[in-house]
Specification:
single chain; 212 residues; alpha+beta; Ribosomal Protein S4 Delta 41, Chain A, domain 1; Structural Genomics Hypothetical 15.5 Kd Protein In mrcA-pckA Intergenic Region, Chain A; five-stranded antiparallel β-sheet; 41% helix
Length: 212
Amino acid sequence: MAKYRGPVCKLCRREGEKLFLKGERCFTPKCAVERHAYAPGQHGKSSQFRRKRDSDYNRQLRAKQKARRMYGILERQFRRYYEVSLQRRGLTGLNLLQILESRLDNVVFRLGYADSRAQARLLVTHGHFVVNGRRTDVPSMLVSPNDVVAVRDESRPRTYFKDLAAVAEEHNIPGWLSRDLKNLSGTVLRLPERSEIDGTLSEQLIVEYYSR
């Protein structure tokens, strides 16, 4: 399975804002965006004093890269999601965001059972979660309304999951999900509305990028 293996903090610095790719660390002074508020690379620091290009293509590219990096998806798979969203009824941009939110690793993250999508992806890959009672190790699996995501019974005695309910309780969940902390599970009630998805994402620019 292909994945990005480089330092994720460089991705945040490249976009010029926090993408919260490292969970709790992003809220501390150790955050790379706080310590190095400029783009990575040899000329990153000097480039902040240069006039930035604000072409339509650049804005579209940055919007696409931001969404792709936030959800931890490589280009080929992201484009495939876009092509699927084109075939669905409704707004293409909203369809794309709903597909991204419906990924199993994102649902685990939204339920508060992981500090970041990267950690959620790792937990799913190691087989710690079941969907509708069936064990799965595919983070990109798309869940549907009424699907139930839960921690596998065999994984609950592990150290990480023993205190998970108390940790997850501190995280608010979106309205399209319901959570049962006692059973360490969650139910997908419906597809998310636009107001329940990150407002800093610009789906229109993403659609414009792939429509060139």
